[in-house]
């Protein structure tokens, strides 16, 4: 086609088709998790984590729309669609960069907020409502799985709710550094709050890698779309 590079056009189409497929997968899986109680149980997703699933539904929808605009814009050589794709992708990139900067600037506030959240959870360990009891049952499973006890202060976080079955540590079959004594019982030494923070730190590099990977793909999309847009304009 005169004035427009076929290589650029179909490269743009393939790029956006893969973009659209990724959005479809994210959207489909997120909706399945959101509506299926069996999926939530299998993946151990609690009600307070559903906000993250809702966010993934929104992200999947946006990626699908942008992928559609990019595909149609490339095939139909529509400057309007390509421009909308470019603007949408640029806004997402700006939001990512802004989020990263704000995360770095307000790191101390985020850590304080996390500590406050853990403190509220400590109160739930000592509560007596039905919601507190459900939380306590689920948390005991978490303690046994991760070999930790309490959230901030170990077994003391359980208060009057502490008993012989709470985060019991088998001294014979465990490492000596894993257990400690509390009120005459062997319990896990490490607070679960530390386990959670260690998990976040361990996966932070993975999250940063994904973020940089997405940023690279978005910049590639911006270059493709603007190059094609300019070629169509010169046609």
Unreliable runs: none
| Number of H- or I-type helical stretches | 7
> What is the end-to-end distance?
10 Å
Measured as a percent range, the helix fraction is over 70%
Quick recap:
The chain is mainly α and 235 residues long. It is built from seven helices and two strands. The chain has helices spanning 6-35, 37-42, 50-75, 79-105, 107-125, 130-146, 192-234; strands at residues 179-182, 185-188.
Description:
The chain is mainly alpha-helical and 235 residues long. The chain is 71% helix and 3% strand. It is built from seven helices and two strands; from the N terminus they run ααααααββα. It has helices spanning 6-35, 37-42, 50-75, 79-105, 107-125, 130-146, 192-234, and strands at 179-182, 185-188. The chain has a two-stranded antiparallel sheet. A hairpin with a 2-residue loop joins β1 and β2. The longest helix has 43 residues, at 192-234. The protein starts with 5 loop residues before the first helix and ends with a helix.
Q: What attributes characterize this protein structure?
A:
3% strand; glycoprotein; 235 residues; mainly alpha; disulfide bond; two-stranded antiparallel ribbon; membrane; 71% helix; single chain; 7 helices
